[in-house]
Amino acid sequence: MTAPIIEGADLVQTLGEGAGQVDALKGVNLALSGGELTLLMGPSGSGKTTLLSVLGCMLTPTKGTVRILGHATTGVRPEGLAELRRRHVGFIFQSYHLFPTLTALENVLLVLDVRGERSAEAVAKARTALITVGLAHKLDSFPRELSGGEQQRVAIARAIVGNASAVLADEPTAALDSENGVAIMKVMVEIAKDPGRAVLVVTHDPRILPFANRIVHIEDGRIVNEERPQAKIA
Amino acid sequence: MVSQALRVIAGAFNGVQAPSRDTAPKGKARPPRRLLPLVFVLASRNLFHDRVRLIATVVGIVFSIILVTVQMGLYLSFSRMVTTMIDHAQADLWIVPRGTKCFEDPSLLDERERFRALAVAGVAEAAPLVIGFAEWRLPHGGATPVFVIGSDKEKPGLQPWNIVAGSIDQLATPDAVAVDESYFGRLGVSRLGDIAEMRRRKARVAVITKGIRSFTTTPYVFTTFDRARGYIGIANNKATYFLVRVTPGSDIETVRRQIADKVKDSEVLTEAEFRERSRAFWLFGTGAGAALFAGALLGIIVGTVIVAQTLYSSTKDHLNEFATLRAIGSSSVYIVKVILWQALLSAIIGFLIAAGIGLLVVKFTADTALPVLMTPGLMAGLFALTLVMCAISAISAILEVMRIDPAMVFTR
Predict the structure, then answer these.
(1) Beta strands B163-165 and B201-209: pairing type?
(2) CB-based contact B131:B300 (threshold 8 Å)
(3) Interface of A with B in 72-111 (CB under 8 A)
(4) Among A206, B131, B174, B384, which has the highest number of CB atoms less than 10 A from its own CB?
(5) pLDDT by residue (tens digit) across B54-93?
(6) Which of B76, B147, B151, B146 lies closest to B105 in space, CA to CA?
(7) Burial level of B256, CB count in 10 A (0-12/13-18/19+)?
(8) What's the first-to-final CA gap in chain A, in angstroms?
(9) Which of residues 15-34 of B touch A (CB under 8 A)?
(10) For chain B, the helix, strand and coil percentages under 3-state DSSP, each to the nearest 5
């Protein structure tokens, strides 16, 4: 068995202060392997997004350790965490979070730009990523000129253009209609076929269950169940 | 109109197209364009995207810089005007009454001091110069104070310049005086040959100058040394200054020391020292310079606050984008660059407009009593000041983005 891309062990995450303090994660263990599309499901407030933030190096866990490609993030300062995200993690957000004043191509290129890649090769990579998600004809379109599904495709291209080892998606289909949701998940499945890349999708959209290799259920900050159905749609 | 101007400026950045709702036809790919650094593209597009805010920022910068330009231009002009007589005098050294604060200080020296100075080796000439106030009686009645300057043409001294009618030689003719055309109204004269009186002595306009203005608003009247003493009413053995010329090859500092040893009741100043002393008195001894500096400082503060406020609110509006940048792994430096580029672009646009208006102010005040001056050095200084002001203004915005939690992208 190959080593996990991201591994969280005994993760505890306490949020808030004083009387408002809550334990969003209560000792979570989760490892994401390459070539696998994992769904993280659970009710609102169960800790899904917190776990995604911790695994994606956006939050430092109160207790426990996160390893990305074997590198522990414990004690790493915010700039170091940013570098880990820059090098290894691609994010997809429910509301896309595209830059409204940049074109689709520039939005994707931005990920490479923050890594210092500013050559013609970088532009070619960004184009390729957009072509991969089916947006060859929308390279120079601004987000306001794109449909929700197209915007999410740009976000996916942005997540994969840097050859991220882990793609973490937060409710990527929640803002989309059924047809677009399915189309987006098909793209996600394609991305997850890369054995060097793990894909974690936080969702409570039952429509996308058939796309998963693995489904993890979380409730009240704890993983309560895990199943490995045979992915039906690929 | 301002919006259109900003749009033109936006277009001037090659490859940076200010997005608008009507540019970008749907589904049609635009031709590939040369890419500027993306951090610059992002900053400029964010800046030009919200034109109302950009206009507010630019207006703030423009007002601020114009205020500073006018104040500093006046300062520069004033600092030159207060030394204009010293600048136009032909002297290596000035023998001045002890404690003299400025050129216009009408204390007197005894003529014996001149002879003592002339006895010093290396002194070629020590020409007397007299200055003082007199009452100019207008040809058609009434009177006005004037500032009389008396110096002989044959010796190094202080003669009128910028002569537009008559000649220096004519000052040697009986009753001849030189006046500036800008004071014709005050003096009740309008042409060569017009007659007035000072201390019951006739004063005939024999020379007319242009642009010799007094910052005190009292008109200057040039004449010969002896005649000036008569107009002012001082004894024949008195003078205000002695203007020393050293012989070629003599060391000015050595000559100065030797004169100073002989003229105990006087001071011996180099031209630069006298200029500096006059400038210090008028600019700082009277508070005039401090007032001009205070005005300039106020302009800088107002500009900084306005730019800081608009940059901060712009940053707040784009917080989501900055959080996204942080989430995708951008460094703090990258984000700071975006904000600084916005600040610097605002500075450049604001400065260009302010400089244009400033030059108009310079043009329109050129013939006034106190023109606003603009030099390449002042222009460069103002540009640097604008950049620094906008960079400082960016601090609050930078501090705001430094506090961003990238995880906020999940909750928005």
Answers:
(1) antiparallel
(2) no
(3) 79, 82-87, 89-91, 93-95, 97, 99-103, 106, 109-111
(4) B131
(5) 888 888 888 888 888 888 888 888 888 888 899 998 889 9
(6) B147
(7) buried
(8) 22
(9) 19, 21, 24, 26-27, 29-30, 32
(10) 55, 15, 30
| C-alpha dist (Å) from residue B201 to A108, B131, B233, B302 | 89, 17, 11, 55
At position B154, the amino acid (one-letter code) is E
Query: Could you tell me the two tokens for B140?
Result: 């058609």
Q: What is the pLDDT of residue B180?
A: 93
Pairing assessment for the beta strands A166-170 and A222-227 based on DSSP bridges? unpaired
Q: Which is it for the CA torsion B294, B300, B303, B306, positive or negative?
A: negative
Q: Do B328 and A91 touch (CB under 8 A)?
A: yes
Closest listed residue to residue B145, CA positions, set B156, B162, B133, B130: B133
Subunit contact B407:A142, Cβ cutoff 8 A? no
pLDDT score recorded for residue B412? 64
pLDDT tens digit sequence for B251-291? 999 999 999 988 888 899 999 999 999 988 988 888 887 88
* pLDDT tens, residue by residue, B347-395: 899 999 999 999 999 999 887 777 888 899 989 988 998 888 888 888 8
CB neighbour list of residue B347: distance below 8 Å, 6 or more residues apart: B61, B307, B386, B387, B389, B390, B391
Cβ–Cβ under 8 Å, residues B346 and B390: yes
Reported as a single tens digit per residue, the pLDDT across B135-190 is 999 888 889 999 999 998 777 788 999 999 988 888 889 999 999 998 998 899 98
Q: Where residue B6 falls among pLDDT bands split at 50, 70, 90? A: very low
Residues 6+ apart with CB under 8 A from A116: none
Comparing CA positions, the residue from B185, B177, B226, B232 lying closest to residue B203 is: B177
CB contacts < 8 A (A, B): 107
Neighbours of B32 (CB within 10 A): 11
Q: Which two tokens stand for residue B213?
A: 């203005």
pLDDT digits (tens, 9 = 90+) for B232-254: 999 888 899 999 999 998 899 99
Tokens of B167: 């000649």
First to last CA, chain B: 36
Give dist(CA B122, CA B246) in Å, integer: 5
Residues of chain B with Cβ-Cβ distance to A138 below 8 Å are 27, 29
- Which residues of chain A carry a pLDDT beneath 70? 1-2, 230-234
Q: Which of A159-163, B32-36, B106-110 is predicted with the least confidence, judged by mean pLDDT?
A: B32-36
Name the one residue in this structure whose structure tokens are 């400026």.
B9
Task: Tell me the C-alpha distance between B397 and B340, whole Å.
Answer: 9
**What distance in Å separates the CA atoms of residue A148 and residue B405, rounded to the nearest whole number?**
26
Is residue A100 helix, strand or coil?
coil
